[in-house]
Design brief:
Blueprint (H helix, E strand, L loop, with lengths): L4 E7 L6 E7 L2 E6 L2 E5 L4 H14 L6 E5 L5 H9 L5 E6 L2 H8 L3 H4 L8 E5 L2 H7 L4 E6 L14 H4 L1 H10 E11 L4 H9 L3 E8 L8 E8 L2
Parallel strand pairs: 5-6, 5-8, 6-7, 8-9
Antiparallel strand pairs: 1-2, 2-3, 3-4, 9-11, 10-11
Length: 224
């Protein structure tokens, strides 16, 4: 068994802990304490987040999408697969080191997707990006923290509360999709989405591409 090697660490913005990037052979893991947030072998549900959102948008030559959370790039790569050449994808990542890791040790995982002309990556709080624009996006995809319940950054809660959902709704074009990934179900969040006026669908996706692993949850909420 090849042992894990810690490649780098990065402090969370609120000072509550450190992310650690680990490698074992060709496998990468991002950890917070004893919790594994991401693993390069488990990409199924993150890819489903983009695939399901793109399917519900339907064919369009000029889709503009915002992805909150770069992670290991699985959602971004899947979006690039399903979106046409004229699409634009803004990616907002809160932690600068995650972007550095994507361009450095994890470059093989990202497979050049950050250099795609459709992609613009910024080190930014996705909540602030959402609040900055009105009617800008056809889709907003959130893979931030462990979902609405949070785990790493307490400030992420403002994305998923009633006020945050109204802000996201305002940033979407009519018919736009808010897609949210979560490590598990959250009935309170489903109620908040519906209370915000979204037509809401809840889908279960498995962690592994082959259909195995943990069951994660994706909400697909359409603005009327």
């Amino acid at each position: 068994m090849i042992p894990w090697t810690v490649l780098d660490s990065a402090a969370l913005p609120d000072g509550s802990g450190d992310l650690r990037l680990k490698q074992r052979g060709s496998e990468f893991s991002i950890m917070l304490g004893s919790n594994e947030l991401m693993n390069s072998r488990l990409s199924g549900s993150e890819e489903a987040l983009a695939k399901l959102a793109c399917e519900r948008l339907g064919p369009s030559a000029r889709v503009r999408m915002l992805i909150g959370g770069l992670g290991m790039g699985f959602t971004l790569r899947a979006a690039l697969t399903h979106l046409p050449p004229g699409a634009e994808i803004d990616v907002a990542e809160l932690i600068p080191a995650v972007v550095d890791w994507a361009r450095g040790p994890m470059a093989p995982v990202f497979a050049g997707c950050l250099d795609d002309p459709r992609v613009q990556v910024s080190v930014a709080d996705v909540a602030e990006v959402i609040a900055e624009y009105k009617g800008r996006y056809d889709a907003i995809l959130l893979d931030v923290d462990n979902g609405p319940e949070g785990l790493t950054v307490a400030g992420n809660d403002r994305l998923y509360g009633a006020a945050g959902l109204q802000t996201a709704k305002a940033a979407l074009r009519p018919g736009g999709i808010l897609a949210v990934w979560s490590s598990g179900p959250d009935h309170g969040f489903t109620r908040r989405l519906k209370g915000a006026g979204f037509a809401t669908e809840e889908v279960t996706a498995r962690a592994r591409r082959t259909g195995g692993g943990a069951r994660h949850v994706i909400w697909l909420a359409r603005r009327g």
